[in-house]
Amino acid sequence: IITSNVKDFPEECLAQYDLIRQTPDDFLLHQFHLDPSLILEKLDAQASALSKEREYILERLRLLAPGFVALVESSNT
Fold first, then answer.
1. Residues contacting residue 46 through CB under 8 Å, at least 6 positions apart
2. What is the pLDDT of residues 49-59, one digit of tens each?
């Protein structure tokens, strides 16, 4: 389950159903580490669909996924 609402999804309750909880930031960080080039490609595609640059998408993600945004910005790609 991907949610920022961690208090209503305690790990001990999810474990009984074999589910895990990740924040949006944790999820995006994990995806980036799996395939950085694919994630950058998808960010660029999202931005392009809005006639914007990657930075526009990152700015919108900054509050929800600050670690992810910092990682993308530090990747210099």
1. 57
2. 999 999 999 99
- C-alpha of 55 from chain center: 15
Cα–Cα distance for residue pair 77/64, rounded to 1 Å: 21
| pTM for the whole structure | 0.87
- Burial of 34 (C-beta count, 10 Å sphere; 0-12/13-18/19+): exposed
Q: What is the DSSP string of 5-64?
A: --TTS-HHHHHTTT---B-HHHHHHHHHHH-HHHHHHHHHHHHHHTT--HHHHHHHHTTT
Strand partners for 46: none
